[in-house]
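Quick log. Single chain, no ligands specified.
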Amino acid sequence: MTSHTAVTGTKVSRRPGRRAVSQAMTYAVLITLGALFLAPFVWALSASFKSNAAIYEFPPSFIPKPFVSNNYRLAVTVLPFGQFMVNSAVVTIACVIGQLLSGSLVAYSFARLRWPGREFWFVVLLGTMMLPPQVTMISTFVGWTQLRTLTGVDWVDTYKPLIIPSYLGGSGVMIFLMRQFFKTLPNELEDAARIDGCSTWITFTRVILPLSRPVLATVGVLSFIAHWHDFLGPLIYLNSVDKYTLQMGLRMFQDINGSRMNLLMAASMLVLLPVLILFFAAQRHLVRGIVLSGIKG
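-> predicted structure:
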């Protein structure tokens, strides 16, 4: 009996030590992976403060020597990056608003309303998530060009092909995230609203949406990142330099001054800055929205 107690006590006493070792190994792996993913960003940030010759030194160094502080000033003066940033902001904000408005309506209808063919069309929506945009790129472009014949209005070389699709349902991924979140909300909330005489629209706007801030923030951040970094859409539909977005401006900068890598890295950091600020500002809502969206299928 005494021997069994001693052995049991030894096992119990060893468990905290094993748990500490396991946690230490987990943190070591996470820190290593995090450092590997962070290394390219750190190198690009370091290169933005280096001279062009120092970037190509071997072995590479993460500490700028010498430290060049005017790369950012030169980068924004080579091309009209101010105009490009305004263009990107207009397109991105308009698309984010469109996806939040139309996407939330579609997601609510899939999650809370009952109508014929709902499950079938939801499967079709999931199918669009598996279809690469390059597959429909040519047919979509032809469709936008044909609209000139029907309406007499130019659609290509405008922001309309970039913005209008966001108001027609938006992205399947965003709708799926919002639909999953809406399904986690208790049905009793809608029942109470209907007892009080609320219509479906009032229930959606005054009951569901105020409770859906985490997923709306998540969709807003993901949509902002996707449209801010969109290169394929502006490349296809925009021809005028004064309408270029930042991604087109970076490509233009690379074509003109591709050999000046330090200025290109400085311009890239400026383009990335709004995304970093938005991500860290909404990080808590972003994580919460993604976690809650996967609770209930």
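The mean pLDDT is 83.
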